[in-house]
Amino acid sequence: MLSLPANWAFRSSVRCWRHRSVLTAALKASDVNGVRLHSSPIGGGVTGMEEILARVVAPLPTYETRDKYPPPPESNSLEFMHFYGSLEKAEQLRFLTKLSHDFGVDHKGVSELASRLLDAQLRDLATILQVEDRLRYGLTPRYKQLLNHISRVEGGVKFLVDLRADVLEMISSKASETPQIRDLNGTLKGLLSEWFSVGLLRLERITWQSPCDVLQRISQYEAVHPIRNWTDLKRRVGPYRRCYAFTHAAMPGEPLVVLHVALTEDVSDNIQSIVREFATLDSEEDVNKINAAIFYSISSTQAGLQGVELGNYLIKRVVRELQSEFPHMAVFSSLSPIPGFSSWLQGLLAQCKKEGRGSELLSEQEWEQVEQAVDSGPGPAAVEALRKLIATGEWTRSERLTRALEPVLMRLCAWYLYGEKRRGYALNPVANFHLQNGATMWRLNWNADTSPRGVANSCAIMVNYRYFLNETSKNSALYLQHRAIAASEQLVGLVSQFQKSSKL
């Protein structure tokens, strides 16, 4: 019997071979129709790109003929997809730069239309609306037509999702900072937001009986708490667990965003009891033991859908689904990691050491405990010793240090989540996500994720964001409009302790 990785690799290779066969057949059919498709870039680099783009990017129809213009042949879309896929990363950047620069908006035409709109302000309303509509149409990039037509061929939507992922990578890596590439990203995001609106998505519950390739993807895409083997995967879709995903008709078998849920008696305070609990593997669910739904992992699987709101809607749909299955259920909460806390804390300690302000972070008694535990001198030496302990996670091996650091790390973490901001919103991305959804920052949990990853990322601390259903709309509006964070007494108390003990 094949091992799990070997089985998945075999299935993946079969799918890849089938996909290649289908694509080859489509390309041959297009070649029969007289369209040349290139398996590698045409000699001459930029010249070859210009030739391809001139052939596949149709002129923008005039305003008068926009609804009567015949669609380009499907082979144009296939040729673009095939050519782009044959390019190396650097060539893809040049290709997309050329596409966005040479086949974007007709800026001269837009300026003329804008002038006409100004001249029309004293005319009747019908004339103004028509000129506005012409201007709106003129602001359409020429390449947008091509993107629309690509979405209509088999595999086209997935191609465009991956294309935007490439564009985002180019922007984030600063490989390209041209305004045209940013405009291409905006155009792609706008199209994908329409195509992946929540009304067009299908909610699927993933179970052990789901197709093997879907289970494989669920395992591969799990970004929060990696799935180790078949047994681990079976447990996460088995009794007292639920796994849901949004899918789209244009990308069959491809989960877009995945939510893992634990069904528990109360709000969980550690992840070990959820992902390492083997007792639930073959047990029958007792509905009397199911009072709470704990969202312990949500993963977006498509980099190209960044900024397209899916996770918020998935949580809302899953809540309705669970309420239908368990009418008595009233407790909904996340058990969330705190990525970035350890890095933030190390940076803060390094800054305090440099500026000689270490005494502002901990009380005198707390510094004495650290100094005794690590056998270091006071002042900068103790600050550096603590920074190294956080960086290596060595503090978890000392019960004495663990006890001494618990109150320190808990209040620092509370401040990081509640007080550290980016443009007025929570700096931590997970906190920002749940707060936008209207959740309440409810409870910090000590020693909640003792895995090496949990210690390295967040000093083993996790946080619950509670979804009080009758308050989420109000909380969301207050956060988005006024940057106000809904928080429990525990969180507010820890923040208050930080503010009293620290002079930052």
Question: Main sheet?
Answer: 5 strands, mixed
- Low-confidence parts: 1-44
Which class best fits the helix and strand makeup? alpha+beta
Cα distance, first to last residue? 60 Å
Shape: globular
Radius of gyration: 28 Å
Question: What count of helical segments does DSSP give?
Answer: 21
What pattern of helices and strands is seen along the backbone?
Answer: HHHHHHHHHEHHEEHEHEHHHHEEHEHEHH
Mean pLDDT: 87
Kindly report the spatial arrangement of strands forming the biggest sheet.
1-2-3-4-5
What multimeric state do the chains show? single chain
Indicate the proportion of strand residues: 5-15%
Portion of residues in helices? 40-55%
Features:
single chain, 504 residues, alpha+beta, five-stranded mixed β-sheet, two-stranded antiparallel sheet, 21 helices, 53% helix, disordered N terminus
Description:
With 504 residues, the chain is an alpha+beta fold. It is 53% helix and 10% strand. It has 21 helices and nine strands. The strands form three sheets. It has a five-stranded mixed β-sheet with strand order 1-2-3-4-5, covered by helices on one side. A two-stranded antiparallel ribbon has the order 6-7. Helix 2 crosses helix 4, helix 5 (107-119) packs antiparallel against helix 6 and helix 17 crosses helix 21 (489-501). The protein is globular and about 80 Å long. It starts with a helix and ends with a helix. The model is unreliable at 1-44 (pLDDT under 50).
